[in-house]
Amino acid sequence: MNKYIKKTLKATIICLIVALFSTVAVILFIYLLIGTKLEEKISLINRVSIDVNNKKDEVTVINDNKIKNYPEYGTQYAYIEIPQIDVNLPVYFGDTLEILKNGVGHSSGSYFPGEGGSIIYMGHNSKKMFRRFSELKNGNEITIKANYGEYKYKIYDMQIVKETEVDKLPIQNEKEILMVYTCYPFNNIGYATQRYVVYAELIK
């Protein structure tokens, strides 16, 4: 009888070990399958969790280039237009994954159009977003139609940078510069470690 119990117990332990390893293998396979794609999307954002709504706040600009009544985080306050690549997309204050599903994100650590400093926008490299960035040339214009005014910027540079090169997206308040970036290469599958950045200066 004892031999039978020992044999049964041994078989049960072996089954549990096999089941545990099988579960770990399945989880690892799922992570390798979709985990990198998820990380690629998250790499563009600050990993801030917030509910997105479509409420548009009233925003006004006062004489000294400071904004009164900033839009709430997650709300749309502008449109970005780049006619050379048929881009006309909503711009949201914030850069969460949820926001980037709806349009272009505005880094909360940067300035707003009209404030005279660095403005950082970001979006996916999908066909409906910034896939055609490589077609842009110096001299092309980008228009930001905010709910408090319209601003035009002229492109003066494009760069491919590593995601770790944060100095390539400097925050300063000496000159109004718009920096818009997306993941690179545009046809990349999996995690992208590079960014395609378009730099433009305010002209109107």
Summarize the structure.
This protein has 204 residues and is α+β, with helices and mostly antiparallel strands. Helix content is 23%, strand content 31%.
Strand-helix topology:
Layout: H1 2-42, E1 60-61, E2 67-68, E3 76-82, E4 87-93, H2 97-102, E5 104-106, E6 118-122, E7 141-146, E8 149-162, E9 177-184, E10 194-202
Parallel strand pairs: 4-5, 6-9
Antiparallel strand pairs: 1-2, 3-4, 3-7, 5-6, 7-8, 8-10, 9-10
- Determine the N-to-C terminus distance: 92 Å
Rg, please? 24 Å
Structure class? alpha+beta
Q: In the CATH hierarchy, what is the class?
A: Mainly Beta
The 3D shape can be described as elongated
Question: Strand order within the widest sheet?
Answer: 3-4-5-6-9-10-8-7
Low-confidence residue ranges: 36-57
By CATH's scheme, which homologous superfamily applies?
Sortase
Q: How many H/I helical runs?
A: 2
Just name the CATH architecture: Beta Barrel
Commentary on this structure:
- With 204 residues, this protein is of the alpha+beta class.
- The chain is 23% helix and 31% strand.
- The chain is built from 2 helices and 10 strands, in the order αββββαββββββ.
- It has an 8-stranded mixed barrel with strand order 3-4-5-6-9-10-8-7. A two-stranded antiparallel sheet has the order 1-2.
- The longest helix is centred in the N-terminal third of the chain and has 41 residues.
- The chain starts with a helix and ends with a strand.
